[in-house]
Amino acid sequence: MTRGSPLPAHRLSDLPDRVVLPALPEQARTSPPAPTALDGFNGAPAAETRRALLTCLRSPRWAHLVTAHRPYPTLDALLAASDEAAYDLTAGDLTEALAAESLPPLPADAYGAAHMALGAAHAAYEARFGHPFVVCLDGVPPPEALDHVLAAIRSRLANDPEEERVVTAEELRRLARQRLTGLL
Predict the structure, then answer these.
(1) pLDDT tens digits for 128-164?
(2) Phi/psi of residue 87, each to 5°?
């Protein structure tokens, strides 16, 4: 098998005296990157940050813990810290956070019977466990939200109080995470 002629070797003397690189636009060379919502979160006064966090989860202890560990390099780092702070909540912290929660609103076109069914299920849940029912609907398509909430209440009514406390704490953590993501 014969090969064609070998490619000529490149020699430094074949290169021009200088290499021209395209210049960056003037603005790109002088402008710092635009601040992000995370930059604003990291740089805001602690009291302002705690107030904002309380819209995500009504636990002053959680808001304090998340605020105290700023700055966060990424949203994922912030969400991980949020999760960790939520796992550290005491029963009293959870009770305080639950007191501010309410059921997600029903779609405007929901039938009156749906409102009654949800109200009755929620009343039974609150009578059994002594606090409002919470569930995170992250990822649930809006047309399926009512069915999801009703099914969750009915299934969780079978939990013993300690098991339900664990499930409720996890749902609060997920709600805080969802709201925090929306906040930023």
Answers:
(1) 999 999 999 989 998 888 889 999 999 999 999 999 9
(2) -65, -25
